């Protein structure tokens, strides 16, 4: 194992990210958005990288969290911690349902089912506009306040999200290191064998979905508070696609890869969109490059760089590109 | 407890209208080595699938230690003490040999593994089992290698080890020597004989040398039915067996 994949190192890198972002970025909104999507992408990675499930349903959970925050905070004055907890719970329940129905099929059919659910939930949100605001979304979602002061400046809210991010990231590291996480890897490697040695593999996949859904919805709620709106676009199929693209760019072999993926995408989008309105075209090229030459994503590149600098000559056998997936 | 570990009564499996297995009565004695032989298509692997619960029996009954397990799911049967190895090697290739065995040992208490806060290392029993099996397989030197990087013979032994790690009472081995070289076969033979001392071993094998050498009982199958059953000597002498399947192969005792 590459030393960079060790849990304390991963956690250290996450902490470092939280500290470095304010130093290099002018916009607190962008920095906060990076942390929010880093959580979402890490949750997607739990399914894609660890369990081997390519889910197009992540936008559902993100949207559910967004609406949970939007509805609770604009209609009633429910305390923010309760809203965040409730959003996570609702996300977990929705993900359990979607997961429970989708994992009945494998491969392409599984992917298509998650895609279908994604469309389904989008139209549900679109249709029940009394609750969700339909096309307009829900406006005027307030920021949380800590100790009586509202976190109205971007960097104040960034601090709030940063604490959430580090906590969630640490929890996800714990999950991947647990006997549960290691069983997920076994299921990804060889599901038939995992079942033959006694693991009820479906239950493990559903639980992975639930955890992923909880984190994603939690982040969705934070996002609504960040932009002050609960927009319809958060539950759109496009969001699911965005999350998957970030996950793949970042690399699915480690959790910090997800932070890289989210950061890289959002920073690139921010830079490119100011120079050229058709910037998505360039992003397409980036994705093609990753798919063709960097199958372990940005994280794979980091690992290779580390090996080149610190472990030159030694343990060449740990560098086995044949095992890329 | 009875002396019979595993028993079937009139076991049958249908795929559509095709009877892959019909009217099979088996009585496997505790801590014995019992082999199943027969030509391709005789229903040997289907029998294993039915015994492990991978396919459901369409008729008949299966009993483990006198307890009816006909309708028990495959993972529940693992917990009750049935484990199997596969004819085609089925491992976790990108995980280390030790992790493969740790997972197999953890498979006995899978609900524990659903707790996302519990560290894998906290299950000392599973770790100890993994190390014990590594010792019995004589694979200590490669315990930290990835399973996918092991030689074919080592992978086949690990395949048997995966079944051993769930601490089963009954262990089903589907052609454990398939594709092996002579040296590896000898090691596998020792391993199966060693297993038979404290496990009930049921195994499918094409290598008659091994079958005649280490089996306590042999069941010959043909076209989904039981043809003959007896000690190796009895089966060897049986005229019907000689005519139907084995011919001269059966006289060769060399492994």
Instruction: Give a short account of the largest sheet of chain A.
Output: 2 strands, antiparallel
Strand order of the largest sheet of chain B: 6-7-8-3-9-10
Q: Tell me the span between the first and last alpha carbons of chain B.
A: 35 Å
Q: Regarding CATH, which class of chain A?
A: Mainly Alpha
CATH architecture of the largest domain in chain B: 3-Layer(aba) Sandwich
Biggest interface, residues from each chain: A-B, 27 and 38 residues
| Number of helices in the DSSP assignment of chain B | 9
Q: Radius of gyration of chain A, rounded?
A: 19 Å
Can you describe what's shown?
The complex is a heterodimer of chains A (325) and B (255). Chain A has helices at 7-24, 28-51, 58-75, 80-102, 108-127, 129-132, 154-177, 179-189, 191-196, 201-227, 237-250, 255-275, 279-293, 297-310, and strands spanning 138-139, 145-146, 149-150, 229-230. Chain A has 325 residues and is mainly α. Chain A has one domain (3-323): ABC transporter involved in vitamin B12 uptake, BtuC, CATH 1.10.3470. Mean pLDDT of chain A is 88; it is low at 315-325. Chain B has helices at residues 44-52, 74-80, 97-106, 124-137, 152-164, 182-195, 208-214, 232-237, 239-246, and strands at 4-15, 18-29, 33-37, 59-64, 67-68, 82-85, 170-174, 200-204, 217-222, 225-230. Chain B has a 6-stranded mixed sheet, sandwiched between helices. In chain B, strand 9 and strand 10 form a beta hairpin. In chain B, helix 3 (97-106) runs parallel beside helix 5 (152-164) and helix 4 (124-137) crosses helix 5 (152-164). The longest helix of chain B has 14 residues, at 124-137. At the A-B interface, helix 7, helix 8, helix 9 and helix 10 of A face helix 2 and helix 3 of B.
């Amino acid at each position: 194992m590459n030393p960079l994949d060790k849990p304390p190192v991963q956690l250290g890198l996450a902490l470092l990210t939280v500290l470095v972002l304010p130093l290099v970025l002018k916009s607190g909104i962008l920095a906060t958005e990076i942390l929010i999507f880093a959580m979402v992408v890490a949750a997607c990675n739990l399914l894609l990288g660890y369990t081997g499930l390519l889910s197009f349903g992540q936008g559902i959970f993100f949207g559910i969290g967004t609406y949970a925050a939007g509805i609770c905070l604009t209609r009633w004055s429910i305390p923010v911690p309760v809203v965040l907890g409730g959003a996570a719970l609702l996300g977990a329940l929705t993900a359990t349902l979607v997961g429970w129905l989708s994992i009945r099929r494998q491969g392409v059919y599984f992917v298509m089912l998650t895609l279908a659910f994604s469309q389904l939930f989008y139209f549900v949100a679109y249709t029940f506009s009394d609750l969700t605001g339909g096309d307009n979304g829900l406006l005027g979602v307030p920021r949380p306040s800590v100790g009586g002061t509202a976190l109205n400046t971007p960097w104040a809210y960034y601090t709030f999200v940063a604490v959430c991010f580090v906590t969630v990231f640490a929890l996800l590291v714990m999950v991947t290191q647990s006997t549960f996480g290691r069983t997920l890897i076994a299921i990804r490697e060889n599901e038939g064998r995992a079942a033959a040695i006694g693991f009820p593999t479906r239950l493990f996949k559903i639980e992975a979905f639930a955890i992923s859904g909880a984190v994603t919805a939690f982040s969705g709620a934070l996002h609504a508070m960040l932009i002050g709106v609960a927009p319809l676009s958060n539950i759109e199929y496009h969001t699911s696609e965005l999350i998957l693209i970030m996950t793949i760019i970042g690399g699915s072999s480690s959790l910090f890869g997800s932070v890289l993926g989210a950061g890289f995408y959002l920073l690139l989008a921010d830079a490119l969109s100011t120079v050229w309105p058709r910037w998505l075209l360039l992003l397409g090229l980036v994705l093609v490059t990753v798919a063709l030459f960097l199958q372990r994503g940005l994280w794979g590149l980091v690992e290779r760089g580390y090996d080149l600098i610190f472990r030159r000559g030694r343990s060449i056998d740990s560098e086995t590109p044949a095992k890329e997936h | 407890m009875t002396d019979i570990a595993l028993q079937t009564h009139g076991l049958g499996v249908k795929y559509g209208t095709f009877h892959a297995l019909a009217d099979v009565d088996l009585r496997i004695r505790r801590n014995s080595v019992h082999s199943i032989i027969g030509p391709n298509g005789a229903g040997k692997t289907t029998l294993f699938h039915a015994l492990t619960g991978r396919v459901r029996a369409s008729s008949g009954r299966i009993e483990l230690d006198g307890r009816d397990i006909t309708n028990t799911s495959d993972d529940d049967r693992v917990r009750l003490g049935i484990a199997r190895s596969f004819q085609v090697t089925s491992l976790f290739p990108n995980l280390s040999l030790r992790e493969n065995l740790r997972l197999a040992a953890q498979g006995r208490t899978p609900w524990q593994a659903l707790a996302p806060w519990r560290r894998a290392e906290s299950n000392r029993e599973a770790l100890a089992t993994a190390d014990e099996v590594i010792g019995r397989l004589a694979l200590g030197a490669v315990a930290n290698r990835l399973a996918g990087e092991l030689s074919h013979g080592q992978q086949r032994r690990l395949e048997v080890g995966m079944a051993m790690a769930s601490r089963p009472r009954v262990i089903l081995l589907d052609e454990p020597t398939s594709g092996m070289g002579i040296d590896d076969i000898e090691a596998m033979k020792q391993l199966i004989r060693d297993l038979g001392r404290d496990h009930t071993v049921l195994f499918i094998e094409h290598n008659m040398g091994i079958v005649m050498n280490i089996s306590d009982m042999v069941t010959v199958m043909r076209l989904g039915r039981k043809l003959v059953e007896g000690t190796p000597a009895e089966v060897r002498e049986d005229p019907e067996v000689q005519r139907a399947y084995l011919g001269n192969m059966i006289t060769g005792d060399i492994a």
